[in-house]
Amino acid sequence: MNFELMASMMCANYGHLEKEVRDLEEGGIDSFHIDIMDGRYVPNYAMSLNDMRYIRSATKKPLDVHLMIEHPNTNVHLFINVLKPGDTIYIHPEAEYHPSTTLQKVIDAGITPGIAINPGTSVETVYEMLRIVKKVLVMSVNPGNAGQMYLPYVGEKYNKLLALKDQMGFDVYWDGACSADKIREFAPKGVRGFVLGTTLLFGKKRPYGETLAAIRKLEF
Fold first, then answer.
1. How would residue 150 be classed by pLDDT, with cut points 50, 70 and 90?
2. 38 is catalytic
């Protein structure tokens, strides 16, 4: 079973960020997930533009930039200017008056366009955007904080999106409370990648390479 594993860098040890990036890269992580929060769209502040810029300079692996900010169209160019082809920007459709305009800026810059869907956002309300994005990041928890509990009703949303992905040309990604049983259940269904935070990857007092190898060997 082939699936991607992304490190949620808001959970990393910022006292040793260079080592964290290096150890994750050497351990076999597929990409680095960057959570940008403005304290308005979500009730928290997380990573900054400078954090993203440093990680982009420290690794050749792709970055997945998750913008949890109001009106991303205003400042999306700041993030685009740091990234390179192969990187991804996700926006929340509810955060922008005309989200397709913001996505077009991302597309025109050669960056992979994505949307992030909150637990309370229905598939029907973002249906038209599914035709222009390449990635859909489904939040299984309310965005803004690490370590939250999985919201079980989100499973139905994954199933709806997985039924549409081939027809509309996007991949589905998991973000929030990602445990081994969720990977075991949803990877065979077609979820392309999983954002790993404190549930499986960080704070385990175990080399990242060992943890990532164990996740990849889950029996389906």
1. low
2. no
